[in-house]
Amino acid sequence: MERVLYGVAAGRRRDIVLLLHREGPLTLAKLRAALGISASTLLFELSALESLGVVKREDSMVYLTELGERAASIIATAEPLKTLSFLSVVGLRPLVVWLLLSPYLHIAAYTLVIGWAAALAIGAFQSPPLALLGVAYVGYNLPISIGLSKTVSLAVSLLSIAALFLATYLLSKGRLAPPKTAVGLAPIALYPSLHLTLVHLAHMWELTHLITLSQVLLFIALLFTATIYAAVYSLEVGSTYEGVLVRTLLVFFVAPALLYLAPIR
To answer: Which keywords has UniProt assigned to this entry (predicted)?
Structure first.
């Protein structure tokens, strides 16, 4: 991927890739007109992109390959820095790109998941037990408690983690590997450790507002999970960020928020 990015990150090749990413497959004539270049120049650039495996030509149509869609999505992360697009900035796309390309990705991902499971194991022995139910946390000093036993709470939490990874793998048709999925789920993975720490400090120092703070941070963690997960998915699968974001907001933020707010009604 690094070789491909270096090959398409600048000049006319970048313009071609981003145009195809934005507009979809185009004819040679429409590409040439949109870019304002000669036919010979366009064919030269397309040949270079074809050798990188980024574009394909069928008759007079030019379209991005799966690799091309991924490369275009990564290159497009520079655009939020120019336009200060709120949604893309919240998605932390430049940071996500760096994490996905980092040589330490696997170590960081496995450490994150092990820490996630360990925090939920500790949380399962609290009263009431802390559990992850799908994408929503319930129990220990949270707005919702469903009265699960310690063993069942831990089992439900671990099954929920496994289900999130499996669902992502299936929905992406195997293109989103577990370590990269972990990057997208990082905010809710880190939350139980933070929650347990804040509740412990609240009880030790008799600062009840720390529990309220933790509950507020839960909503923030859900929001950032939706945006970061959308960034990871769009970059790896080649989908548009905005389109994926609508779905992830519904799953990771709107649905849990409605669950937490239900008792208030």
So the answer is: Membrane, Transmembrane, Transmembrane helix
